[in-house]
Write a structure and sequence with these properties.
Helix content: 55-70%
Strand content: under 5%
Number of strands: 2
Length: about 200
């Protein structure tokens, strides 16, 4: 119901998940710029420090799962931080601070994605840990196999991607792939065909 249940508010129709994200964004108010800068800064500098100086190479530790990555990705994280910082301070190359470039990426997309991921990561276990995927998989195994050559559990994944938030569907796909519930072809099929743009995002 949180991800898919329709709610009518002020003569418009939305889902509970969207109401939660809107309320959180309103609660953060002007501090959302600082929150985005903090998250991107931790991701970039943390990955540099962990990859360069950490002696613990165990991939199962939480810090390594979050921060350790390849150097091309570290460079991209640092470049992202530079763009967010340039827009936040209104300094640096003008091309990064134009309404159609950096401001769109940081203020329109970045802030929304930050809120969606934060709320989605807290609520996603409701979809994956309490039997909903197995239940949907049992009901939808045959049609999903015939139509898309995908396992039945992908039905709830695809539905969440389309009707709630594509970012949450993508996180779910990654989680299921890492657990061995999807093979590489199935994960790529779901990510590329169902988790692109959700209906609420389009609206």
């Amino acid at each position: 119901m949180i991800f898919l249940g329709p709610v009518i508010t002020d003569n418009s129709q939305t889902v509970v998940f969207s109401i939660i994200t809107d309320q959180l964004k309103a609660a953060l108010g002007s501090f959302i710029d600082e929150a985005l800068l903090l998250v991107v800064g931790i991701a970039s500098f943390g990955s540099v420090l962990v990859s360069a100086f950490s002696t613990n190479r165990d991939p199962d530790t939480l810090i390594n799962q979050i921060m350790r990555t390849s150097w091309p990705w570290i460079v991209l994280r640092c470049l992202g931080f530079c763009v967010v910082l340039a827009v936040y301070l209104d300094q640096g190359p003008e091309v990064l601070r134009l309404p159609d470039t950096g401001i769109t990426v940081v203020k329109d997309i970045g802030q929304n994605v930050l809120i969606i991921y934060f709320v989605g990561l807290l609520l996603m276990p409701l979809l994956t840990e309490y039997g909903l995927m197995e239940f949907a998989g049992t009901l939808c195994r045959r049609p999903f196999k015939l139509m898309f050559k995908l396992p039945g559990r992908a039905a709830i994944d695809a539905l969440t991607s389309i009707a709630a938030a594509s970012a949450i569907g993508l996180l779910m796909t990654i989680s299921q792939y890492q657990r061995g519930n999807y093979n590489a072809r199935e994960a790529c099929t779901i990510a590329c065909n169902f988790s692109l743009v959700s209906i609420p995002f389009a609206l």
